[in-house]
């Protein structure tokens, strides 16, 4: 297998085979993200990807169950190309039961329902999508390149064809100024399509990004531990989802908020209320730049 640059994957893909299908991110303008800032986006050829898949089979054998295709927004590839790659992967790994990619709402929406159904049939199980926020003002401020309407549209399309949606909510990305709007409007967006997973991440300023400079200049007010927990409480309190799993599977978070909606909603709120009784000095510093 051949890898270029730093390869990023969600924590839930820790046991997945990683095969780069794209290099970098086609948007690459989010003010908070440094992941692909110095990487020029390009698509790898289908032949290169198939060669890496074959190399992985020769090295690991056939007993691969989960496969993730980095980098950012691999869903942007042509449907025919993705189908060819997925079908080839299944031919090499007979025990493969999960294929996943990154894909933001903007690029998911470029696919028709027919395209997405073809990808589902070819083996695409889940799309990890960083909505970050459902608040349009916050989305605009962080240069996300999507709107709340686009997020809902993409979520509904994926649900319709049976591809799992793993949505990422970035705690604190609205700053202190839009904490309430960020939480409440995000809850409205998520409730509109009930993603399979709602994964919490807490914003930490990363040097070299635009938002880090705004934080350093005092233009962006970072949430402290209790403020971040109150934001999560507001989010969970306003979620009206069916069979959505809330997860805090990242080291950036202050507290493990986890449960199935709507079954565990009250339990999650009680857990947050308990966390709010703990002295803030017991939590990690809010400004740590590397996690």
Reported by name, the CATH topology is TIM Barrel
Strand content: 15-25%
- Helices and strands, in order, run as EEEHEHEHHEHHEHEHHEEH
- Based on the structure given, which CATH architecture is correct? Alpha-Beta Barrel
Rounded to the nearest angstrom, the distance between the terminal CA atoms is 27 Å
CATH superfamily: Aldolase class I
Rounded to the nearest angstrom, the radius of gyration is: 19 Å
Silhouette: globular
Class inferred from helices and paired strands: alpha/beta
**Helix content percent band:** 25-40%
* Largest sheet properties: 8 strands, mixed
Strand order of the largest sheet: 1-4-5-6-7-8-9-10
Question: What is the CATH class name?
Answer: Alpha Beta
- What average pLDDT do the residues reach? 95
Q: Unreliable runs, pLDDT <50, ≥5 residues? A: none
Tally of domains: 1
Total number of beta strands? 10
Total of helices: 10
Concise summary:
This protein is an alpha/beta fold and 291 residues long. It contains 10 helices and 10 strands.
Please tell me about this protein's structure.
The chain is 37% helix and 15% strand. It is α/β, with parallel strands linked by helices. The chain has a single domain (11-282), classed as TIM Barrel (Alpha-Beta Barrel), CATH 3.20.20.70. β7, α7 (179-191) and β8 form a beta-alpha-beta unit. α2 packs parallel to α4 (113-122) and α4 (113-122) packs across α6 (148-161). The longest helix is centred in the N-terminal third of the chain and has 15 residues, at 46-60. It starts with 16 loop residues before the first strand and ends in a 16-residue tail after the last helix.
């Amino acid at each position: 297998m051949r890898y270029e640059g730093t390869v990023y994957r969600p924590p839930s893909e820790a046991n997945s085979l990683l095969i780069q299908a794209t290099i970098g991110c086609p948007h690459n303008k989010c003010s908070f993200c440094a992941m692909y800032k110095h990487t020029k986006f390009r698509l790898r050829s289908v032949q290169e990807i198939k060669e890496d898949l074959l190399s992985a089979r020769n090295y690991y054998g056939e007993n691969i169950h989960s496969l993730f295709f980095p980098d950012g927004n691999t869903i942007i590839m042509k449907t025919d190309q993705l189908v060819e790659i997925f079908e080839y992967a299944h031919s090499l790994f007979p025990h493969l039961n999960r294929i996943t990619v990154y894909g933001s709402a903007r690029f998911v929406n470029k696919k028709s329902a027919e395209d997405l159904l073809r990808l589902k049939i070819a083996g695409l199980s889940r799309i990890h999508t960083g909505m970050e926020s459902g608040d349009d003002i916050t989305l605009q401020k962080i240069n996300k390149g999507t709107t709340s309407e686009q997020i809902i549209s993409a979520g509904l399309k994926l649900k319709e064809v049976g591809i799992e949606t793993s949505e990422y909510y970035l705690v604190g990305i609205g700053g202190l100024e839009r904490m309430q709007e960020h939480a409440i409007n995000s809850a409205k967006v998520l409730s509109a399509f009930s993603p399979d997973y709602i994964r919490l991440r807490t914003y930490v300023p990363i040097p070299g990004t635009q938002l880090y400079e705004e934080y350093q200049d005092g233009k962006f007010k970072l949430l402290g531990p209790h403020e971040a927990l109150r934001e999560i409480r507001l989010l969970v309190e306003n979620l009206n989802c069916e069979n959505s799993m809330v997860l805090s599977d990242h080291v950036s978070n202050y507290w493990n908020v986890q449960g199935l909606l709507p079954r565990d909603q009250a339990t999650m709120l009680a857990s947050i209320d308990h966390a709010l009784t703990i002295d803030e000095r017991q939590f990690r510093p809010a400004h740590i730049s590397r996690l």
